[in-house]
Design brief:
Elements (H helix, E strand, L loop, with lengths): L4 E5 L4 H11 L6 E5 L5 E5 L7 E5 L6 H17 L4 E6 L18 H12 L3 E5 L14 E4 L2 H11 L4 E5 L5 H11 L2 E11 L2 E8 L6 E9 L3 H12 L4 E9 L5 H6 L3 E7 L6 H4 L4 E4 L2 H12 L10
Parallel strand pairs: 1-4, 4-5, 5-6, 6-7, 8-9, 8-11, 11-12, 12-13, 13-14
Antiparallel strand pairs: 2-3, 9-10
Length: 313
């Protein structure tokens, strides 16, 4: 039934692409994505895609500039090979934190990347938990921004139902935390923080009652883990019984693992939008859930031109 679908992957997250293909019962497309000796990205599509509905699975994660170029060049190669429709499946959208001008003469890099993806020839974009919803408006092509909430909630309902409060690590994530807590049947608290610089945060105050509670600290991503570790310490000092972290994108750069391993955080629940390093995969505090089922269902619906709206929960 899926004879006109082709799924390709860059080098960012081949394991996730294979899971999606397994769920759909289709083979992963034959493509060689490598580099020339000077570091330029080299792409060869080794099968016919003329008139096909093509999906490229590629998170723009570390090394970000390399994975971005792989995505752009693959889109261009498939467009020139006469693919009928090209959907860029970007589980983690890099540069998403640069979505507005925060200082004079600052770029809006998330918009620039959106322009590049569109100019390369993508007809549609599928992503998960964009850092800011307005990024959808940076594109002049359809964008489906799925939420990993159903995947995370299934695990949380099995392990965190009793005496639980969901905490937003900043005011920007309050809406996400409120919706998550409502479906979990948990109360809501907020951490008021002041960011002193890039990748630096200082916890200032806790709004809400967390004393004697099991806390779920909810965020869209964990990068250097400075925010969540400081937040966890503040929550424990304020009387929380235990603190767990729940996020979609495990960026985990720089000192993140050292901070997590040395903290009072009980567990960090993440998804596989970004592949973990060998050390992170072996960390006993990190639990990985797969979004392959969510993405494969979205791909199937897009292919059949069915509604995707029921997945936006």
């Amino acid at each position: 039934m899926l004879e006109r679908i082709r799924i390709f992957s860059g080098n960012a997250n081949v394991a996730l692409a294979k899971k999606i293909c397994d769920n759909l019962g289709v083979p992963l497309g034959k493509a060689n994505v490598s580099t020339f000796s000077d570091g330029e990205t080299r792409v060869e599509i080794n099968e016919n895609v003329r008139g096909m509905d093509v999906f490229i699975i590629q998170s723009t994660c570390s090394p970000v500039n390399v994975t971005c170029m792989e995505l752009l060049i693959m889109i261009d190669a498939l467009k020139r090979a006469s693919a009928d429709r090209i959907t860029a499946v970007i589980p983690y959208y890099g540069y998403s934190r640069q979505d507005r001008k925060v200082a004079p003469r600052a770029p809006i890099s998330a918009k620039l990347l959106a322009d590049l993806i569109t100019a390369a020839g993508a007809n549609r974009v599928l992503s998960i938990d964009l850092h800011a919803g307005q990024i959808q408006g940076f594109f002049n092509i359809p964008v489906d921004n799925l939420f990993a909430t159903p995947v995370l909630l299934e695990y949380m309902k099995k392990n965190y139902l009793d005496n639980t409060v969901v905490v937003s690590p900043d005011t920007g994530g309050v809406e996400r935390a409120r919706a998550f807590g409502k479906r979990l049947g948990a109360s809501l608290a907020i951490i008021d923080k002041r960011r002193e610089g890039p990748n630096e945060a200082q916890v200032m105050n806790i709004i809400g009652n967390i004393e004697g509670k099991r806390v779920i600290l909810l965020d869209d991503m964990v990068d250097t883990a400075g925010t969540v570790v400081q937040a966890a310490n503040a929550l424990k000092n304020a009387g929380a019984i235990e603190v767990s972290v729940c996020c979609t994108h495990p960026v985990l750069s720089g000192p993140a693992l050292d901070r997590i391993e040395g903290s009072d955080i009980k567990e960090v629940v993440v998804t596989d939008t970004i592949p973990l390093s060998e050390r992170a995969a072996g960390c006993p505090k990190i639990k990985v859930l797969s979004v392959s089922g969510l993405l494969s269902e979205a791909v199937r619906r897009i292919y059949y031109n069915d509604s995707v709206s029921s997945l936006f929960i």
